[in-house]
Amino acid sequence: MAAPGGSSGTSRRLVQYVVVRADLVRTLAWPLGAVITQACHAATAAIHLHYSDPDTQEYLAELDCMHKVVLEAPDEASLSSLSDVLSREGVAHKLWVEQPENMPTCLALKPYPKENVHHLLHKFKLLK
Q1: 77-84 — which CB contacts under 8 Å span 24+ positions?
Q2: Centroid of chain to Cα 115
Q3: Is 19 strand, coil or helix?
Q4: What are the backbone angles phi and psi of residue 124, rounded to the nearest 5°?
Q5: Structure confidence at residue 5 (pLDDT)
Q6: Over 50: is that where the pLDDT of 3 sits?
Q7: pTM of the entire structure?
Q8: Range list of H helices, 9-75
Q9: pLDDT at 8
Q10: ∠ CA(42), CA(43), CA(48), 5° rounding?
Q11: Torsion sign across C-alpha atoms 68, 63, 35, 104
Q12: pLDDT band at 112, cuts 50/70/90?
């Protein structure tokens, strides 16, 4: 059933992608809750930074129908490389760098239509 009050009336799907370093848990033994916190920081920051963007506003307007996809990057190098690619392609995102460690832990894109950004993320698997 369609959500009442939807702003677009279209069938396009807005998705917020979050990419988390898998090695934080698997190699560095971070608690799962700490890793989830990093993803929450990145997602919130990306929404905040792009709050006035029309896709972000549409995404937020359908609060009960938000779609997020959480992917895993193997390590810091792959996460940083992805951030570089996204920047070159003009894809708005936030690379979350944990302080005071100055350690990139994850990144989140602003909400986008899935078909606009999926091709840049297809090599990353769902976080397990």
Answers
A1: 79/19, 79/21, 79/104, 79/105, 79/106, 79/107, 80/104, 82/19, 82/107, 82/120, 82/121, 82/124, 83/107
A2: 15
A3: strand
A4: -95, 135
A5: 42
A6: no
A7: 0.89
A8: 23-26, 32-49, 54-61
A9: 45
A10: 95
A11: positive
A12: very high
